[in-house]
Amino acid sequence: ELKESSLSPGHLPHHYQPQTPLVIVPGSDSSLPAKNLAIICEKLAVKSSDYLLLELPQTPTLAARTLYSEIRRLDALKPAFILLFKRDYMHGEQWEAIWNRIDRAATIKL
């Protein structure tokens, strides 16, 4: 017998994942150190270091509203991976639900 919660797509890990790997890196800088880039490419087994940056608004309400559309937009461009910096302002109660979804969508977290 299937439970009702198991029927909800939101409970499945792949529900939030784009086809393109999503990588989360801590930091407030918008540039990726070469060392981290090499680690990511090795873990993903990709030869290309062409990535696109996922930028979210600082306001949690706006970030929540644009998260999936922005991930889908970047995914459609077919980069080697999508990169999201976990910035200092992305903390607090309102960000918890957003990070819940981002964590499910992530392929790698450094």
CA radius of gyration: 15 Å
User: Percentage of helical residues?
Assistant: 40-55%
**How are strands sequenced across the largest beta sheet?**
2-3-1-4
The 3D shape can be described as globular
Contiguous helical run count: 4
**Binned strand content:** 5-15%
- Span between N and C termini? 38 Å
User: What characterizes the major β-sheet?
Assistant: 4 strands, parallel
- The overall pLDDT average reads 86
- Give the number of DSSP strands: 4
Poorly predicted tracts of residues: none
Q: Regarding quaternary structure, how should these chains be classified?
A: single chain
Sheet/helix structural class: alpha/beta
N-to-C SSE string, H for helix and E for strand: HEHEHEHE
Quick overview of this protein structure:
With 110 residues, the protein is α/β, with parallel strands linked by helices.
What layout of secondary structure does this protein have?
Layout: H1 4-7, E1 22-26, H2 34-44, E2 51-53, H3 60-76, E3 81-86, H4 93-105, E4 108-109
Parallel strand pairs: 1-3, 1-4, 2-3
Helix pairs in contact: 3-4
Task: Describe this structure as you would to a colleague.
With 110 residues, the protein is of the alpha/beta class. The protein contains four helices and four strands. A four-stranded parallel sheet has the order 2-3-1-4, sandwiched between helices. Helix 3 links the parallel strand 2 (51-53) and strand 3 (81-86). Helix 3 (60-76) runs parallel beside helix 4 (93-105). The longest helix has 17 residues, at 60-76. It is globular, with a radius of gyration of 15 Å. The termini are far apart. The mean pLDDT is 86.
